[in-house]
Specification:
Layout (H helix, E strand, L loop, with lengths): L1 H24 L4 H40 L1 H13 L12 H21 L13
Helix pairs in contact: 2-4, 3-4
């Protein structure tokens, strides 16, 4: 909610400065400059996000390979003494350290989906004879 107020303040302050430049300094190009700079900043943000998407895809692929090879679990066991203070409610055999390590290594969103996904439990067939 606070972030909304910050963005509204940015817009209102920019508009007030533009009006001031128009009235006191007779700068008629101020609104053209604002629109041009807005679009150039949006273009720069888009270019950065495209570059980061490629890097994120590379690391997610490497993490998936490491997960299937068992390297993530092995590294989680090695890092467990350092991670245990950050997870006080987890038991020693809990998968929490592995999930926590996964989040720190770049799989935050996928780990969150995995943790909150519904997994059906296996029912053991009881043979009463």
């Amino acid at each position: 909610m606070t972030l909304n107020y910050i963005w509204v303040a940015f817009i209102v302050i920019a508009f007030a400065v533009a009006i001031r430049r128009l009235i006191f300094f007779h700068d008629t190009d101020v609104f053209t400059e604002i629109v041009t700079s807005t679009f150039s900043a949006a273009r720069a943000g888009f270019d950065v996000s495209i570059g980061l998407t490629g890097i994120l895809s590379l690391w997610l692929g490497l993490m998936k390979i490491g997960e299937r090879a068992g390297l993530v679990g092995a590294f989680a066991r090695l890092a467990a003494p350092c991670l245990r203070p950050t997870l006080p409610r987890r038991t020693r055999r809990s998968s929490g350290c592995g999930v926590h390590l996964h989040e720190h290594l770049g799989q935050h969103a996928r780990s969150r989906q995995r943790r909150h996904a519904h997994r059906p439990t296996r029912r053991r067939s009881s043979s009463k004879s």
